[in-house]
Amino acid sequence: MPLSIVTALVRNLIRVPAAVLRSRVAKDAEVLALRHENAVLRRQIARVRYESADRYESADRIWLAVLSRLVPRERWRQVFAVTPTTLLAWHRRLVSRKWTFTERRHPGRPPTAPTVKQLILRLARENSTWGHRRIQGELARLGYSIAPSTVWEILQSSGVAPAPHRSGLTWRQFLTTRAHGIIAADFLHLDTVALGRLYALIFIEHGTLRLHLAGVTAHPTAQWTVQQARNLSMTLGCRMDSLRFLLRDRDTKYTDASDAVFQADDVQILLSPPQAPKANAICERAVGTLRRELLDRILIYNEAHAQVVLAEYIRHYNQHRPHQSRRQLPPDSTKPPAPATVTDLQAHRIRRQPLLGGLINQYQRTA
């Protein structure tokens, strides 16, 4: 209870002994005077609603509620400036404050640990067909004892929809599960020092991000494109059997004859929509990487020079360059990523291996 309320109650209680010690005549006279003064004040401020509790402080309400138990109920309207209903409400509030039963209250069920909540949300995110009971069963198998209702409440409070509403595949999941069966193609143009234009045909495997340079030419004829398709088929070898789709744009450099090379290996040709490079985003990204890291920083002399430069960079791209989507592994790496460790630079030295005259650098750790 605030200190101000306690002070007001004590002040009112001190007045009680003084009133008791007075003579009966004096008390009766004082009561009559106070009643008359009360009546006068009521007439003067008749516009104020006496039923309103906003005029009284907490100490006033408590004191009037206590005094109401000493005055007959039929006299309340003449004695007090509020209605009997208001006085009864104040008294009920006073009683409810006393009987709160705080000593019987228990702390309740302990909250779920944040790590368990994160694990529940992770399981729901990584397994779209799992409901709250399936997640609870997996947690029990992992050694976490938790009620299914608690799992349901955590999913609901985090905005995770029930399993039937999130069991469908997203585009990311659909493409990821079929990435190893997709290879994409695109033509890349290069301008030489003498302002001649060259064309490079590149392929990229979606599953491994392995980049292939089919060839470079100033005149990409139909026969040349067919030959590059055959060369790629021979380079891939048995990996060609795992491919199901070739994704390319609608460039006229591709012909039915070049498509037939892939169709002979049961590879279906997928054409991207007109003027929609995002439909072939992975290959377009590889083209952008080639330009930013290589072609925008070097002058190309002729077709042979372009062939050497691109082949050297693609070798670096496939064997050394880390890729975020592959957990910082290069496309040709088949080993799982090593656990993160801090290299002691006092015990090891970092050796630089420049490529293309220092345009690109590779680094290796040596003893």
Automatic annotation (TrEMBL):
Coiled coil: none annotated. PROSITE patterns: INTEGRASE. Pfam families: HTH_32, rve_3. Residues 160-338 form the Integrase catalytic domain. Transmembrane segments: none annotated. Residues 320-341 are annotated as: Disordered. GO terms for biological process: DNA integration. GO terms for molecular function: nucleic acid binding. This is Integrase.
